[in-house]
Amino acid sequence: MRIVITAAIAAGFLATPHGAQAQKAAEPVKAEIFAELRQEVGNITFTPDKRVIFSHHPFFSPDIRVAELNPDRKSFRPFPDASWNTPRAGTDHYLDSVLGLRGDENGIIWLMDMGQRTPLTPKLVGWDAKRNRLHRIYYIPAPASLPESQHNDFVVDLKNRKFYIADEGIGPGGDGSKAALVVVDMDTGAARRVLQGHATTKPEDRPITVEGRDLTLPGKDGKPVAIKVGADGIAADKDFRWLYYAPLSGTSVYRLRIADLIDERLGDAELGAKVERYAAKPNNGGFSLDARGNLYLTEVEAKAVGVIPAEGRQYRRFATHEGLSWPDGVSYSPDGFMYVSAAQLPLAALFNDGKALNRAPYYIFRFKPLAPGRIGH
After folding, report:
1. How many whole angstroms separate alpha carbon 273 and alpha carbon 254?
2. What is the pLDDT of residues 202-243, one digit of tens each?
3. Among residues 173, 330, 150, 160, which one has the least CA distance to residue 231?
4. CA 27, 32, 38, 43 torsion-angle sign
5. CA distance 106 to 47
6. For the CA atoms of the chain, what is the radius of gyration?
């Protein structure tokens, strides 16, 4: 049964009873331009010594899939090296199609290779940035992956030794209806697909509208069809008690106890019954959760990052910038800032009658969150 949402989304500021001073404090801050680059940025993560690692958005088929920002904040080098960014026959030890990536406190950079360009079996590649060597590869074969899979954002849970992956369900031929969550065990490598097609993972019937235009793709009959994206944003609290997730195309954030998610005795029906609706939201991309439980999310229809405060759970815009076109991943750095990319997807040729309106520079922004977060998430 589809969950019907009636709560209104607060698009401006969080109303408070404390007068004009509190109202002013809730107004969005202006995000700071941190880096200017010549290629489209996807997601961003960090090493404990503050190295900036980012994906070039796979939508634009970049030659360098993943990069490390140079100190000049304008140039980059391939990460982990040129070989891992170069497709070659006879092996899958290279990065094919990467958007989601996460760093952990041990200095491992985890790279979600969707495997859609070659194609390859989707895999999580862990690169030890301290020792500059491969740490481990986790494969996500069928039935945990489907032909329609598009594994994107994910959570690294070292406490429970698991990865939690959001599969948007919009890979080749997918319309989001088979979106799901995927759990990968760090010790055994076993991958398990859950909540496929559940009301909380598949997209709602609402378009993604940017500057008054719906983002569409040609349908099977040649007529434009509005894009609808399933499970995308995903994050865990600092104690790894709750997993928060949402479809990009949707009006609600949901949460699930991690103890229930990793309990393999629970079938999808039992697990689905334990999901809670957490808060209202706009169409959004990535998630990040700070130490106080405030949830940050990228508002893809506006040039903004929003927050759902733990107290009150009412969405408000938190950081904005006129250059923040299609904010995607949002991630916390050990320097105390949250970072966010601007990929300019709505300006791509596919959405503008074949005329590419996107152009360099492409920005990485940052802003101070309400509380510290978890490195790389």
Report:
1. 12
2. 999 999 999 999 999 887 787 889 999 999 999 999 999 999
3. 150
4. negative
5. 8
6. 19
Q: What is the pLDDT of residues 75-130, one digit of tens each?
A: 999 999 999 999 999 999 999 999 999 999 999 999 999 999 999 999 999 999 99
Q: What is the pLDDT of residues 250-292, one digit of tens each?
A: 999 999 999 999 999 999 999 999 999 999 999 999 999 999 9
Asked if 342 and 20 touch (Cβ cutoff 8 Å), the reply is: no
Question: What are the angstrom distances between the C-alpha of 132 and each of 83, 109, 128?
Answer: 13, 10, 5
The torsion region of residue 171 among left (phi > 0), alpha (psi -120 to 50) and beta comes to beta
**DSSP of 62-128:** -SS-EEEE-TTSS-EEESS-SGGGS--TT---S--SEEEEEE-TTSEEEEEE--TTTT---EEEEEE
Per-domain boundaries in the chain: 19-367
Single pTM value for the model: 0.92
Helix/strand/coil for 373: coil
Single-letter code of the amino acid located at 268: D
In contact, 292 and 374? CB cutoff 8 Å = no
Whether the bond into 372 is cis, omega within 30 of 0: no
C-alpha–C-alpha distance, residues 194 and 222, integer Å: 33
Which CATH number does the domain 19-367 belong to among 3.30.2350.10, 3.30.200.20, 2.120.10.30, 1.20.1560.10?
Answer: 2.120.10.30
pLDDT band at 26 (very low <50, low <70, confident <90, very high): confident
CA distance 305 to 327: 7
Q: What is the pLDDT of residue 220?
A: 78
pLDDT at 341: 95
Give Cβ neighbours of residue 162 (< 8 Å, ≥ 6 apart).
183, 184, 185, 186, 258, 262
CA gap 251, 281 in Å, rounded: 5
Which band of pLDDT confidence, cut at 50, 70 and 90, is reported for residue 20? Answer: very low
